[in-house]
Amino acid sequence: MTVQSPNPIVQVLPETAPFSEEQRSWLNGFFAGLLSLDNAGVTALSPAENAAVIAEAEDGAPWHDPSLEMAERMKLAEGKPLPRQLYAAMAQQDCGQCGYVCETYSAAIASGTEGRLNLCAPGGKETLRQVKALMEASGAPAPAAPADAAPVTELGPLGRCRENPALATFLSRRKLNGEGSEKETWHIELDLSECGLDYVVGDAFGICAQNDPRLVDAVIALLGARPDAEIGGKSLRAKLMEDCALGPAPDALFQLISYVTGGESRVKARRLAAGEDPDGDLERLDVLGALHKFSQARLSAEAFVEALDPLQPRLYSISSSDNATPGRITLTVDAVRYRVGSRPRWGVASTFLAERVAPGDKVPVYVQRAHGFGLPAEPATPIIMCGPGTGIAPFRAFLQDRQATKAAGRNWLFFGHQRRACDFFYEDELQAMKDSGFLTNLTLAWSRDGDKVYVQDRMRERGAELWAWLEQGAHFYICGDAKRMAKDVERALVDIVAQHGGRSSEDAISYVASLRKSGRYQADVY
After folding, report:
1. Of 361, 364, 422, the residue nearest 209 (C-alpha)
2. Which end of the chain is more exposed for a tag (fewer CB within 10 A), N or C?
């Protein structure tokens, strides 16, 4: 007796689809295996801890804290002018992926000089919806350009902005994790000598990656279109590979689907376009998932492409120094792979760098100048760096630079990860710096070796010494997760100031706020 699966695979690739037998066979297997779309539930993410140890009220933007939830940020911005409310709607990471920082992007939208409302990559759909709602409520004039189209402007210098990338040569990748690691982290090296780009430590590096061909082919198959159909001067396949975001399905796609369907499907599509979740499956609805959910919808390839968001560049902290290795640049990249239900998902740029680009390939790139994240102007100033996981990237660059320029300041690195045996990135380099005396302190924390120990725990253990460094003028740096780790480290720093500086909690908070305001406390968070 044959038992039918409780979640049978829907055969969506018709015999008339414009693929060869080999392509059809591969795609059908792909749907049935790697991209099986079932109705399995998804474990919801636990809410981020209510953070904000330091509310920078003195600058008029107490919402400028990436750990705050949208509702909290918007409440703090109530009654403020439109540019400030738009500012609160941003992700607050000042990551630069939009080509601005949060405050200047908001001001550009409010003034009408920036018509693209969907550039905040970390904020994603949540930020876009809030920005649209604010613009509509304000009665502001329509944007100068459609939200999904770039305005016609002069390009910035080659390789210095997202709109005008240069071509770097991909050289190599090597895995940084040892056997037994639960992570997949890569040391990536590119050659900048032909494009002539340079950078300073603290800058970020933009990668204009392409989507995974497997995902693109699956989307085309579900769309029922020809891969070679011309869209905007490119084939549909090239357009989806190079220009279109295939992550979370945008509201515009659900709106388009509502126009070409009827009955219950139309109602659901409209509700999804409005930000609702009628079937409790919004978490799984990337572009491919949306096409599968509304498989009865017949979308023209051109309208479909117009409904998608543009594929955004990805920014990475630079993990090398141009003073130490001129003409070359390195990145430290976690390959993002996870599952939603039974279906695997891949990070666009991280897996592009980890597996799809080959040595010798040309990659469109640009340098994003740092805003408030860099080495002290005085080389003798001591620095304290806290960078667990891939957060070590800019601090490897800092150390290389200080070593190459023979900076006299003392250096202290806090590094942590899961297991020392397989997750100690750049161990030989760091140990050599420690043995030579250049790296004054190398303090390590391992969360899966016996007791869970994190960098903030090590900070508290060394609190007296850390306080002494601060009192001697040290700059404090942090790089890593904005929602949790960064706020935990900030709390630990406040506690250290209170305990070892003999201050009240309020005074300790003010002390750390003063470090931030003077540029002695800098963060690169994501």
Report:
1. 364
2. N
Alpha-carbon separation of residue 160 from 108, 224, 474 (angstroms): 20, 39, 31
First to last CA, the chain: 53
Q: Looking up tokens 């500086």, which residue turns up?
A: 501
Instruction: Name residues whose C-beta falls within 8 Å of residue 184's C-beta, 6 or more positions apart in sequence.
Output: 175, 177, 334, 335, 337, 354
Residue 496, token pair as written in the block: 């250290």
| Residue pair 205/199 in contact by the 8 Å Cβ criterion | yes
CA 114, CA 108: separation in Å to the nearest integer? 5
* 503 three-class SS: coil
Element (H or E) spanning 364, and its range? strand 362-368
pTM of the model: 0.81
Residue located via tokens 């996981």: 389
CA–CA dist 268, 263 (Å, integer): 9
Amino acid in the structure at residue 294: F
Residue type, 182: E
Structure tokens at 146: 């459609």
Residue 369, token pair as written in the block: 């100048």
Radius of gyration in angstroms for the set of CA atoms belonging to the chain, rounded to a whole number: 24
Residue 457: Cβ-neighbour burial (10 angstroms; 0-12, 13-18, 19+): middle
Beta bridge partners of 230: 235
- pLDDT tens digit string along 329-376? 999 999 999 988 888 899 999 999 999 999 999 999 999 998 889 999
In this structure, what token pair is assigned to residue 491? Answer: 């709390």
DSSP label at residue 429? H
- DSSP for 254-315 reads HHHHHHH--HHHHHHHHHHHTT--TTS-GGG-BHHHHHHHTTT----HHHHHHHSPBPPPEE
Phi-psi region of 444 (alpha: psi -120 to 50; beta: other; left: phi over 0): beta
Structure tokens given for 223: 């769309």
b/e code 346-364 from CB counts within 10 Å (16+ = b): bbbbbbbbbeebeeeeebb
Q: Sign of the CA dihedral 188, 193, 195, 196?
A: positive
126, 47, 59, 117: which is closest to 91 by C-alpha?
A: 126
CA distance linking residue 171 with residue 327, whole number of Å: 12
d(CA 29, CA 21): 12
The answer to whether residues 57 and 65 touch, using CB atoms and an 8 Å cutoff, is no
Quick check: 392 and 200 in contact, CB under 8 A? no
Q: Compute the distance between CA of residue 69 and CA of residue 485 in angstroms, rounded to an integer.
A: 16
Say how far apart CA 491 and CA 505 lie, in whole Å: 11
Q: By three-state DSSP, how is residue 440 classified?
A: coil
| Residues 6 or more apart in contact with residue 465 via CB below 8 angstroms | 441
Strand-strand pairing, 362-368 and 343-346: unpaired
Where is 420: in which H helix or E strand? Answer: helix 420-423
pLDDT at 57: 35
| pLDDT-based confidence at residue 244 (cuts at 50, 70, 90) | very high
Beta-carbon contacts of residue 421 (< 8 Å; ≥ 6 apart): 178, 180
